[in-house]
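To whoever is covering the structure queue this week,

Two jobs came back overnight. Logging them here so there's a record in the thread.

Job A:
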Amino acid sequence: MPPRSTRPAVPLDDDDYPAYTMGRAAAMLGTTPAFLRSLGEHRLITPLRSEGGHRRYSRYQLRIATRARELVDAGTSIEAACRIIILEDQLEEAQRINEELRAGHPDPSA
């Protein structure tokens, strides 16, 4: 039997785990590190930092960055793309809360 590793397991199924370096994230998205930095400057995504201070991105953050890139590629400014995504997220959250409230309270008009 091979010896067990003493390193902790990488949470491969954790969408929030900061697994990707800036260079790798940019390559996966087909964009530049400057684009990823600009998403951080516009407060769309905030990458975690490694002990050495390097930006690290999660799969969830890469999905958000992909949506931003789609909007920018379609001609939307980066500022507007970031605001659109933030508003989409807020709308989704409001709809989720509304559904939860509806599920907990029957419609009195029914």
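Job B:
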Amino acid sequence: MRFQISGKQIDVGDALQTHVKGELAETFDKYSQRPTDATVIFSRDAYALTCDAIVHLSTGLNVQAKGTDADNIYAAFEKCRERMDKQLRRYKRRLKDHYKDRSAPVEYDAAPSYVLAADEEEWESQGESGLQPIIVAETELRVPTLSVGDAVMQMELAGTPMLVFRNERHGGVNVVHRREDGNVGWIDPRNLR
């Protein structure tokens, strides 16, 4: 597994790097996962120390976690690792109970992603063309090809409120999202007629 351990305005010493590598390897061995690479970033957020970790699994899914502590960088990492451990435990339980093992890695397609300006006064001042929003940022988004169950797992592992994916069954673009009531919603435009 490849590690990229860095710090934003924090010096990450050899002892911390060795600790991170050992603990992450132990966590992933525990659940028999095959990670390909891990990115761990330590930073200072006001008066707290933060650890953000993203680990890419060989199945194509990502596990993402964050931990904070007031004054100990090792404690911030341990909180991050505990969250990751909990996510992996849930992921393994789902695979064991409900889903088949994925034989091929997840395929990704590229899609444009836009961030639009939220200033309504500026939209209204444009007159008739007020329906044309101002694009603030344009990036490329990776859209995975997954089953609905795998998409829900990926959304939970990444810790995001929504995931756009291409449905394995019919190839159409679908969305899963976390609803306000705590349940997961699934949008399949193919069924909307």
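Note for Job B: The radius of gyration is 20 Å.

Please reply-all if you pick these up so we don't duplicate work.
Q.
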